[in-house]
């Protein structure tokens, strides 16, 4: 892409993997959606474990205005320490986000290796629009665009006793979706802290429960751990039914929310909040990824967007 | 985009079938070109790749290394420029193409110029040589006529890692005079018939081509010398060429360009290691000599096409050769850091004296096994080639004879303090 002087670039930063070639698929898919919408002069993916590395991505861009959106679920070690350090945002301090764990919007800093302005955005996982993606995930796994009545919704996160923000992001969306009243019950559950996803059926009275893991990519946790922990299957390699019945409850297990096409919209919303000129692209991407359904729009309204 | 109207055009189509259409299209395109040129010259003199064009009170002055003409009226000039047999024509279309490419001072432009051996623009007064040429040979930059002859014929080729990049003048409908198109293949497919290759024209397709090696194993290191062959990108515009290279070998163009300009920001081992936090906090404890072994294990040409420019620290070089790749490695990559963590932990173990009963051939066989794994030759050893120590039957025999049910070599218990 040929950049002119006031050109803008988007960099989606993600973890990636040395071992699993599929870990970066959602990152590439969302980047391609945004490329095709044409809102940015340049769109790049960058990774902690793949290439280009965070360390070397900014120098590949010609644009002067650079929007960096972390494809991470919560504010924590990666978004507050690793990414800003590796991007050489030397003036960075987590205080610049002025967040209590779910409020980060953006901070404008200089990448010192290239002397360019970088708008460092909060992670996709804590953006309000992420609630829409979780609901859309529930719609796609049940094949019902009106899913809600008679259904419970479990939003599942990794959780870690080491960082309270990890759970906050999950609870934040569970609360927002609960407030819409769309589902009979909404509960945040975790792998590594209470309340645990292992006991999923204990937390719901509904006969049907949609389980949406708030993870960026499918991998060990979403495809092995969680299905076995919930009792969907004894051995992940043999797969599981959707829905699968556990203790008399039908569990609709969705797979990582980060693979939902509408995630591209959350990435764009993050960049827009930081001042990127992407309004037309947001409309196009929402349309293309199924994000313009009446339900979603009204829900956005109800939840204060 | 840079205004290539022919994106996605099949440049391999037989252009001669369309001669009339092309001729009139080219006439129009030529008129546009000359308009642009004159507008530019009226604003400021042009001096580019040997072409000089200046508007003076006595008319235009146009000069190439072949000669100078002065006092030309606009009409004289238009006639001279419209004459394709006039060498000025090449200089002008060359100027026009690079105007379209734009991006003065960018890595993209420098790379596209390197592809056709055009003089380096960033070092005025030193246009005699381009640096970083194939196989480390210094090579004289070419003049416009010296480029145009091959560009109109088979094209000019460059190697970039395992990529072979060929640039030609576009000859298809809808292109502007001087437009270049770029083809990319695996170096091993240089002579292959295009019909035998899988054809692509979208840069992002390169991601799928680079994900796995020929045995289908994931390639976490993009610059590993294990790129699969059997594909070709054809008729790419310059921007798309650079994007394609960027997907195959991320950030190599940017770092190469920095090196060309003498401002490659190398981060040596120690500063990179000390920067690490979390589970990688330990890597700076890797002993000095272990860093040598690590570089020998991971950072040589047989394992990675990047040329290692980082050392142990400033003024403390590693003894291992950094390699001959065209693009530099400016700091230890994430794979090296992840492996260094493992070695940093392993190197904290105390050395011990072990006693194993082996025949001389068995000791030799263990060394052969180590070599075969380290050199990635395990699969080359034939099923029945029992003369090779790393043959599977030989390895199974040794295990049956010398390893007990707990996996201990010669029954020597090592479960106490091992972490491997």
UniProtKB/TrEMBL annotation, chain A:
Pfam families: CbiX
GO terms for biological process, alphabetical: cobalamin biosynthetic process
A GO term for molecular function: lyase activity
InterPro entries (alphabetical): CbiX-like (IPR002762), Sirohydro_Cobaltochel/CbiX (IPR050963)
Keywords annotated in UniProt: Cobalamin biosynthesis, Cobalt, Lyase, Metal-binding
Listed name of the protein: Sirohydrochlorin cobaltochelatase
